[in-house]
């Protein structure tokens, strides 16, 4: 049943290693009472903790029912403790704020047992140990013997196979000790009991087997399992089928322990109720920020005034930036202001509506546009005056510059840099946003990448930099390294380039926040020029990250061996020069530490264009190369429209289709006949006389009149209503038209609707057979760009006067082209905005910002108090872990505590704020004649409570993580 094979356990203490267990091998029977004796420090408790899954062995193996635990994960050990192990401790280890019944029920809660069954089994276990009449007492209301009986009941309630008792009589008197031992002996008839004790007399009297330990080794075993007994030869097990594997997986999932959030709330609520005064004061402190914000919102909800915003007039050296998709903020504001002025041309004898919302949406749609950068680039390239006005015109592309470095340990991505993300300083989303900041991020010192494109102006570079070693790059695969004026390189650059080991920084921010002692390499490293000029990198086009498998292309970036080969086959980049800023230079044009030429990007664009995956995607623009599915285009997307809309459109458009094609479908003919279209061919099976008779029956003076009447009526008609026989939704004109149709025409109409409905149903049935991506997204993912069509254009003026001339050039271009080709640009210097905003909103935002500080401070305070709670409840953490609670369950308990505190703080803040609005309104009414009524919107109240809960929850994440990481063995020793 339980077998220990050469179990060893080592502890690292400082620079030395202590061996607690030295190759312990023991086999246990299913039913026996085993006592483990030995002096203090011989490894008894360590052995018990390893058997119970609280501690991990260093080497060897622990077999449970013939199954090795070497590959056990945390969740497997949690399940093992919950379902197979019951612990009885010397100090009882009951949760003090829970009743006797709740303490026993807790293990069943983790097992997912229903509430009724949980209570029934807990009561039965307590009755078994003679405490059936003590269900609702707290542990501090019971004697030592009674508390140990509760602990035994808790250990038995889940019907474990093994009961582990660590000095169960150590804190009891002689009489009570005998009672507990008698109870354990009776239990050993059905279970394996392993007891650690210092009392050899009790062990000799009650145990069926005694094992002695000394210095981490077994020196004696009174009744070892007979190894000479020949076990019956088992038939070789069959290879498990898929059904067997599925059943095993289902069983593991069933046995998985999990504490519900309601249980966590109950535990936390009971704990908080034992500290009512502290909880109330903490909640009140947390509510102060909520009160401040709520009062500000209540006043701003009653008053609105307007102020002028100061025009921005700041000179800078930022470029004129033109992106593919842009919106002119100035034009939007001007258009909205003009529309407002135009709408005011009316008398003031009545009240008129002002279409502000409609104007805003219309203006936004009109002013947001896609720039034709391909055409504009050609115009700039052909403009001879532009060269004298600019330092450079940079064309950027969506193609990613993937740079790697190789080492014995593998490959490391150099660009785009992931250093800050690996440190835990930024999320991947923030890193992406920083990377998207482009040139602006570089100029402001906010860029995260150390690779940047050099300005294509060698004369300017010569003025701004001194070449202290090597030369300037002359080829696409040559780059320069930039140092500062003191010949120093920021250590961020050294880590990013792999000159220092970046793995030493992994998670360093998170670890620092966790209070860990961390050390950062603060030594000043020295590099010779030759060492830096020997640096080599590899550029890998994005398409090389994909490999074709089973007809589709698969992302292989997670495959280490594949990436090593891809990097090995990449284009080698060499550092050929080292630059230092000139002492007299006022600015520097290279924003990164590595500067590369523009033709490196053009080379990369060509490599992407010539890749197999891009060629395949271009050759099959309707097929997603990553999934093999068709893209959903406008044409096939329209197939998913509802049948009624499709019918209406096809019916209303019948006449135009009949004019365009002689080969009309039978459905088109029927639609034309129903509408009275005299130009339609006579349907098959109907004579000319019959057709004329139908026209005469309609009552129209001529067929043209009937056609106009029919097409107008059908254009907005609910065809599904006609098909179902419900005419109530039709207009009087439509009803009149329907009444004018003959039986033959009505039958044709219904037949036409049915055929169209069937067609639409088929289209809807197949609507799921399309890729969720599209051609443009795939090409963007692959880094595909066209040199003639940049993603953005950055124009760097020589000076302010040149900038104005460049703007004139752009304006001349806009005057010479059509409306669809006009360019919208962003002038970071000349952009001026003026708008009328609410004074109260401006003041509110400032006040809320200040009050929010108190909200954050109070949240931090709650986080600290939660941390104190973690320290106070350390033993409870160990108890929960011993009965099978996972690390996630422990986090959930303390997260639940912060949620309760946050909710109480938010609710308390809103209640106090509502009460304070009464005197505030009285003061406003006394000081001013303006009828202002301060009130808190219900939605704002709900949001503020939610914010309070969220902030306290966030503040409690760190303490809850600390709690989850606590060693259960150490936690159980805490008093």
Structure description:
Strands 16, 17, 18, 19, 20, 21, 24 and 25 form an eight-stranded mixed β-sheet that branches. This protein has a six-stranded mixed β-sheet with strand order 6-7-8-3-9-10, sandwiched between helices. The chain is 49% helix and 15% strand. The chain contains 40 helices and 30 strands. The protein has 975 residues and is α+β, with helices and mostly antiparallel strands. A hairpin with a 2-residue loop joins strand 1 and strand 2. The model is unreliable at 228-237, 305-317, 433-446, 640-665, 700-704, 761-767 and 831-838 (pLDDT under 50). The longest helix has 41 residues, at 887-927. It is extended and about 105 Å long.
The major beta sheet can be summarized as:
8 strands, mixed
Counted by DSSP, the helix tally is: 40
How far apart the termini lie comes to: 35 Å
Shape: extended
Mean pLDDT across all amino acids: 75
Contiguous runs where pLDDT drops below 50 for at least 5 residues: 228-237, 305-317, 433-446, 640-665, 700-704, 761-767, 831-838
Secondary structure class reads: alpha+beta
Ordered list of secondary-structure elements with their pairings:
Elements: E1 2-13, E2 16-28, E3 32-37, H1 44-51, E4 59-64, E5 67-68, H2 74-84, E6 85-89, H3 100-111, H4 115-128, H5 144-156, E7 162-166, H6 174-187, E8 192-196, H7 200-206, E9 209-214, E10 217-221, H8 242-255, H9 261-273, H10 276-300, E11 306-308, E12 320-323, E13 325-327, H11 329-343, H12 356-367, E14 368-370, H13 373-382, H14 386-389, E15 390-396, E16 403-407, E17 410-415, H15 419-423, H16 428-436, H17 438-443, E18 451-453, H18 458-464, E19 465-470, E20 478-482, H19 491-497, H20 508-513, H21 529-533, E21 536-539, E22 546-549, E23 552-555, H22 560-568, E24 571-581, E25 594-596, H23 598-609, H24 612-619, E26 630-631, H25 634-637, H26 643-652, H27 654-660, H28 666-675, H29 688-697, H30 703-715, H31 719-724, H32 732-740, H33 743-765, E27 770-771, H34 775-781, E28 792-797, H35 800-816, E29 826-827, E30 836-838, H36 839-872, H37 874-882, H38 887-927, H39 938-964, H40 968-973
Parallel strand pairs: 3-8, 3-9, 6-7, 7-8, 18-25, 20-24, 26-27
Antiparallel strand pairs: 1-2, 1-4, 4-5, 9-10, 11-30, 12-28, 12-29, 13-14, 15-28, 16-17, 16-21, 19-24, 20-25, 21-24, 22-23
């Amino acid at each position: 049943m339980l077998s220990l094979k050469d179990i060893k356990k080592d502890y690292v203490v400082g620079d030395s290693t202590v061996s607690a267990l030295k190759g312990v091998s023991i086999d246990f029977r299913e039913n026996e009472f085993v006592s483990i004796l030995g002096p203090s420090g011989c490894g008894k408790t360590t052995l018990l903790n390893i058997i119970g899954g609280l501690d991990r062995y260093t080497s060897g193996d622990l077999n449970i029912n013939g199954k090795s635990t070497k590959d056990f994960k945390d969740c497997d050990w949690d399940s093992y403790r919950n379902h197979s192990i019951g612990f009885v401790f010397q100090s009882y280890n009951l949760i003090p704020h829970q009743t006797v019944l709740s303490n026993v029920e807790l293990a069943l809660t983790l097992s997912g047992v229903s509430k009724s069954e949980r209570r029934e089994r807990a009561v039965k276990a307590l009755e078994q140990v003679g405490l059936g009449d003590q269900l609702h007492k707290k542990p501090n209301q019971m004697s030592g013997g009674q508390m140990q009986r509760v602990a035994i009941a808790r250990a038995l309630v889940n019907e474990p196979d093994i009961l582990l008792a660590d000095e169960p009589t150590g804190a009891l008197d002689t009489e009570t000790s005998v009672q507990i031992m008698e109870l354990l002996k009776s239990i050993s008839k059905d279970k394996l009991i392993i007891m650690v004790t210092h009392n050899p007399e009790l062990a000799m009297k009650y145990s069926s087997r005694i094992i002695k330990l000394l210095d981490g080794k077994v020196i004696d075993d009174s009744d070892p399992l007979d190894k000479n007994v020949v076990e019956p030869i088992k038939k070789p097990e069959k290879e498990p089928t898929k059904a067997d594997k599925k059943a095993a997986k289902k069983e593991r999932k069933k046995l998985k322990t999990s504490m519900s959030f309601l249980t966590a709330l109950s535990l936390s609520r009971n704990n908080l109720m034992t500290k009512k005064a502290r909880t109330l004061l903490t909640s009140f402190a947390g509510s102060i920020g909520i009160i401040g914000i709520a009062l500000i919102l209540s006043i701003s909800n009653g008053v609105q005034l307007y102020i002028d915003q100061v025009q921005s007039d700041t000179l800078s050296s930022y470029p004129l930036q033109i992106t593919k998709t842009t919106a002119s903020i100035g034009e939007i504001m001007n258009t909205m202001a003009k529309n407002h002025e135009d709408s005011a041309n009316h008398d003031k004898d009545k009240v008129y509506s002002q279409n502000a919302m409609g104007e805003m949406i219309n203006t936004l749609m009109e002013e947001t546009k896609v720039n034709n950068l391909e055409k504009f680039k050609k115009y700039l390239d052909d403009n001879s005056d532009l060269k004298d006005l600019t330092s450079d015109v940079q064309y950027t592309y969506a193609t990613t510059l993937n740079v790697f470095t190789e080492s014995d340990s593998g490959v490391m991505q150099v660009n785009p840099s992931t250093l800050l993300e690996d440190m835990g300083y930024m999320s991947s989303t923030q890193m992406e946003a920083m990377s998207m900041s482009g040139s602006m991020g570089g100029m402001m010192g906010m860029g995260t990448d150390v690779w940047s494109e050099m300005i294509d102006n060698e004369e300017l570079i010569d003025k701004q930099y001194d070449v202290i070693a090597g030369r300037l790059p002359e080829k696409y695969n040559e780059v320069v390294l930039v140092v500062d004026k003191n010949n120093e390189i920021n250590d961020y650059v050294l880590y990013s380039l792999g000159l220092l080991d970046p793995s030493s920084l992994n998670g360093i921010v998170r670890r620092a926040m966790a209070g860990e002692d961390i050390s950062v390499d603060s030594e000043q490293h020295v590099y010779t020029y030759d060492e830096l000029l020997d640096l080599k990198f590899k550029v890998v086009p994005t398409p090389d990250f994909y490999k074709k498998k089973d007809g589709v292309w698969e992302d292989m970036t997670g495959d280490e061996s594949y990436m090593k080969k891809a990097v090995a086959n990449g284009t080698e980049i060499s550092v050929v020069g080292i630059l230092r800023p000139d002492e007299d230079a006022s600015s520097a044009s290279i924003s990164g530490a590595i500067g590369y030429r523009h033709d490196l990007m053009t080379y990369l664009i060509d490599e992407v264009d010539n890749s197999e995956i891009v060629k395949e995607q271009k050759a099959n623009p309707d097929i997603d190369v990553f999934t093999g599915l068709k893209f959903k285009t406008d044409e096939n997307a329209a197939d998913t429209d509802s049948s009624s809309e499709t019918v209406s459109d096809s019916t209303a458009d019948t006449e135009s289709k009949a004019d365009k094609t002689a080969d009309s479908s039978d459905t088109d003919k029927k639609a034309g006949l129903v509408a009275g279209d005299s130009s339609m061919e006579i349907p098959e099976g109907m004579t000319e006389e019959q057709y004329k008779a139908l026209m005469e029956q309609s009552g129209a003076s001529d067929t043209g009149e009937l056609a106009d009447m029919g097409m107008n009526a059908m254009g907005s008609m609910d065809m599904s209503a006609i098909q179902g026989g419900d005419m109530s939704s039709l207009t009087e004109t439509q009803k009149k038209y329907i009444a004018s149709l003959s039986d033959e025409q009505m039958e044709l109409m219904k037949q036409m609707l049915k055929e169209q409905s069937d067609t639409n149903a088929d289209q809807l049935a197949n609507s799921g057979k399309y890729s969720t991506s599209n051609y443009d997204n795939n090409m963007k993912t692959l880094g595909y760009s066209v040199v003639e069509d940049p993603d953005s254009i950055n124009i760097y003026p020589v000076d302010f006067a040149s900038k104005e001339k460049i703007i004139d050039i752009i304006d001349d271009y806009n005057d010479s082209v059509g409306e669809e080709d006009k360019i919208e640009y962003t002038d970071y210097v000349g952009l001026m905005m003026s708008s009328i905003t609410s004074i109260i909103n401006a003041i509110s935002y400032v006040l809320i910002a200040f009050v929010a500080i108190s909200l954050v401070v109070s949240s931090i305070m709650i986080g600290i108090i939660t941390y104190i709670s973690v320290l106070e409840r350390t033993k409870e953490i160990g108890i929960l872990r011993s009965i099978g609670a996972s690390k996630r369950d422990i986090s959930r308990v303390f997260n639940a505590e912060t949620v309760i505190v946050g909710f109480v703080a938010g609710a308390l803040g809103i209640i106090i704020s509502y009460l304070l609005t009464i005197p505030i309104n009285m003061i406003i009414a006394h000081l001013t004649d303006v009828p202002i009524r301060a009130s808190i919107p219900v939605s704002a109240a709900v949001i503020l409570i939610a914010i309070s809960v969220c902030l306290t929850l966030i503040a409690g994440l760190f303490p809850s993580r600390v709690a989850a990481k606590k060693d259960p063995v150490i936690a159980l020793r805490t008093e």
